[in-house]
Structure formats: structure tokens, C-alpha cells
Specification:
seven-stranded mixed β-sheet; mainly beta
């Protein structure tokens, strides 16, 4: 089993920044890919970003590209999401996800991830 714990959410004004972290523990390995998704009330879970430990490839959702950076510390099994120029429409619960065998074609699909954190609320005010 793998446990994921998110931290760093909160309230920020539009244009501000937040940094989210996800700490993974348990049966993790370098084969894992880790991602961030978000879900606003009444909406489907949306892909934000992902990173592969092997090779360090990163992937971004179209709505956040250029404003968000994902990075990882494999030795600490920690993934960080640096969010800048935040907008009110970024308000959502942000979830960390991980999977040991996800293929690149599926990396934006939340249904393909085996492990999930509890989520952390991000609220961006006008």
C-alpha cells in the first residue's frame, strides 16, 4: 500500500502563489508517476500536472500551463506543486495521486491512478 498526504492548501488572493506538497510513504518506488488533480464543486476531477520519477518527465493540464510547476524529490518521495498567478477559477480541492505502472497516454486520466490522498482545499479570492 501507498499513503499520500497533501499539505499547503489555503486561502490566497487572485494573482498570488501557493505551494502544495505531497508526501508518499509505503511501497513506493522509482517506477511511480505522481500527479495532481483538482475538483471544484459540481465539476469533474481535472488533471493539473504529473511527473515521472524515472526520467523526470512532466505533464501539465492546459488550464494551468505556464502558471504551475511540478517538481519531485524521489529520495524523499515528495512532489511539490508551485502555483503562481492564481485565479479564482483555480479554487478547488487538490488531490495528489500516484501509480506504479501508468502509461503516458493515460497520465491525465484520474481513473488510471491507484493511490490518492485526502485532498487539500485551495481557495482563490477576487
Amino acid at each position: 500500500q501507498v499513503q499520500l498526504v497533501e499539505s499547503g492548501g489555503g486561502l490566497v488572493q487572485a494573482g498570488g502563489s501557493l505551494r502544495l506538497s505531497c508526501a508518499a510513504s509505503g511501497r513506493t518506488s522509482s517506477r511511480f508517476a505522481m500527479g495532481w488533480f483538482r475538483q471544484a464543486p459540481g465539476k469533474e476531477r481535472e488533471f493539473v500536472a504529473a511527473i515521472r520519477w524515472i526520467g523526470g518527465s512532466t505533464y501539465y493540464g492546459d488550464s494551468v500551463k505556464g502558471r504551475i510547476t511540478i517538481s519531485g524529490q524521489n529520495a524523499k518521495s515528495t512532489v511539490t506543486l508551485q502555483m503562481n498567478s492564481l485565479k479564482p477559477e483555480d479554487t478547488a480541492v487538490y488531490y495528489c495521486a500516484a501509480d506504479p505502472s501508468i502509461i503516458t497516454a493515460s497520465i491525465r486520466n484520474p481513473h488510471e491512478y491507484a493511490y490518492w490522498g485526502q485532498g487539500t482545499q485551495v481557495t482563490v479570492s477576487e
